[in-house]
Amino acid sequence: MRTAQRKAHDVAERERRLLRTALDVISRDGLHQLTLGRLAQEAGYSKGTVYHHFTCREDLLVELSAESLRRQSRAFQAVAELPWDGVRALYGLAFAGMRHAETQPALFESSVMALTDAVLGAASQERLDRRRLVDEQTTRIVVAVVERTVREGEFGHPELPAEVAVDALRSAVLGYAVTHLLPRRAAQGDARARDSRPAITASLVHGLGWPRLGAAALTEVRRAVDELIPAPGPADSLTRSDGPARSDG
């Protein structure tokens, strides 16, 4: 490996380690405890090294948000490639969004925080642009599923355009994940609340003009999604799909 390639590889690996450490801090002590100084201490790097990767805490949150989107994008693509009709794929995307929040709460919480004006206004344009590219990739997958469902003649809302119906569904899924899946207290609470996810999803999807799936079909779709998005594995599963991190110079 040439020197430049080896250096780029080392920088990318160091950034992955920093992201893994950041997720450990969030999972253990909460997002409010994540600072660049704490990250340097936990990861065993100097503050200068950490600041070379992330110029501010907001850059770190945006990068964690991008990683969250990368994982969702891979899950969405896997759902879209299953031998289903468009409606089942649409339900599958909804379940996949919820499943991601459930299995990766630290990443999901970071992605929610990264949507705030305070973070978007302080993060570097480079980090925001990289996140935008992943977001666009994820959106293309969703749009392809929606277009397939429309071509199959399954969308029947008399007034609401399909793209608006999907945007409303995406917002509803995000809201459900924030209120029901993210808080640890909810995760440890009444199992009936967690088991209501299929019924809630069916009512949302049907109310927006898409066909309602029966209980057996919903169970099949949810089981398939759960298999595609298993429980969290080792933290070193963090991957990058948008090229190497910036160099230390």
Which properties best describe this structure?
mainly alpha; elongated
What would you note in describing this structure?
The protein contains 13 helices and no strands. The protein has 249 residues and is mainly α.
Global shape: elongated
How far apart, in Å, are the first and last alpha carbons? Answer: 18 Å
- List how many beta strands DSSP finds: 0
Q: What integer is the average pLDDT? A: 87
Strand content: under 5%
Number of helices: 13
Q: Which segments are poorly predicted (pLDDT under 50) over 5 or more consecutive residues?
A: 239-249
Order of helices and strands: HHHHHHHHHHHHH
Query: How large, in whole angstroms, is the Cα Rg?
Result: 19 Å
Helix vs. strand class? mainly alpha
Q: Could you describe the largest sheet, including whether it forms a barrel?
A: none
- The proportion of residues forming helix, as a percent range, comes to over 70%
Topology:
Elements: H1 3-29, H2 36-43, H3 47-53, H4 57-80, H5 86-103, H6 105-113, H7 117-122, H8 125-151, H9 162-181, H10 184-187, H11 191-195, H12 197-207, H13 215-228
Helix pairs in contact: 1-2, 2-3, 4-5, 4-6, 4-8, 5-6, 5-8, 5-9, 5-13
Summarize the structure.
The protein has 249 residues and is mainly alpha-helical. It is built from 13 helices and no strands.
